[in-house]
């Protein structure tokens, strides 16, 4: 043994140098956490891009078709993103007050480059869904730890509601992706990241809320972290955040003021997302309906989550993660609770609207996935102190298998049933018969769904005509009123009339039975072109 300090120091330096040289020569393999994240992203890709070419005929058909029509009109009529336009209210212009059209505009660009394919909108939405998976993973790692990040991201990747919404031609996937990215970037900035993260977070968050107003709930996280800075006497940091927030809110307010103006200025005078709020229905209506919690429960169990995810959520909420010793880490660990509480406040104010258009619940899915992931970890580890033991791995496999078999696969299959296929077939038949410039009147299986107008590749009307305050999901009471509506459309230039024989309104009344007098009127005044088991089409003749 050599006791010479100088010689020992020299040998240590030589060993350190050899280790450094070996590290530089070794292959630059990704870390285990990176590999796991990439695996979760692959799982998310599989579930979001499976059957991506499905026509827009699933349970969200109605809303998807309006988004798809706006993409069509950007590409065919005007590229001005501030004038979103649908095609189901006549020859137009049919501008409507809508959210900022990120998904539809990107889809229109794809149409311009590669031609029209109805599934391009699904692909754009699914791509945003992958951004959510990544941002959620990194946000959870910042709030809790990497193992929780893996569990939360996997929960989101497998959650039926997230899969369905992320693979639908809707603005909601862009909303959640952008606000989650913005919150993660801001939380990283708050934890000591680069100053460039603040403007990037502001832009991302603002675009997310512009994509869909419920995204504003995620802003509570930014406000919470700003208040924490104020309490820590970091006034300069808080001031910059406050000014960035004011700028963001000013841009958001300006755009939606414009959307309201646009919707009030052009027929059919429609502003998306209006009505159904607590100030519309009144507090006591909400109270008598228990704030529509029964509807949310039914949606959660039968559509969106299923019992396995509901159990994981309950466990994750009931047993919170152990508090961190570092004060900054304790502050960050509260982010899921802040986000969830803000989303609940949004829900309490807009329960009528949200339960009527359930994709608005998407804003909940980041904190829900985080708590489901935490619940899964609790059940998998139980009393184990280490993660990679055979019993923990086996329990983890059982949890994933149970959620797949009892939630993910059956519920996604249910939500993606082609319930509006007859509407698509009607539209395609109208497209075959239409001459250039023809206007169509079409009644899909679900009255008010413009799916048949969309697939006719023409402009026209749903029937009964809808928009503004008009009720378009119910037939009028008598044939005389319906005939008067039809004659008014004839006078406005309607050329073809088509109806799916299973078309029924929200009261369950079949058109061909409830309005048999309208069919008789068409037999006398129009030319029958198609009479199949599922479709009926007339060419409307001029008076």
Automatic annotation (TrEMBL):
This is Glycosyltransferase family 39 protein. It is found in: Cell membrane. InterPro entries: LipidA_mod_glycosyltrf_83, RgtA/B/C-like. The chain crosses the membrane at residues 29-47, 119-137, 149-167, 174-191, 211-231, 238-261, 267-287, 299-319, 331-350, 362-380, 392-412. It holds the Pfam family PMT_2. Keywords: Cell membrane, Glycosyltransferase, Membrane, Transferase, Transmembrane, Transmembrane helix. It comes from Rhizobium indicum. Its main location: membrane. Residues 103-258 form the Glycosyltransferase RgtA/B/C/D-like domain.
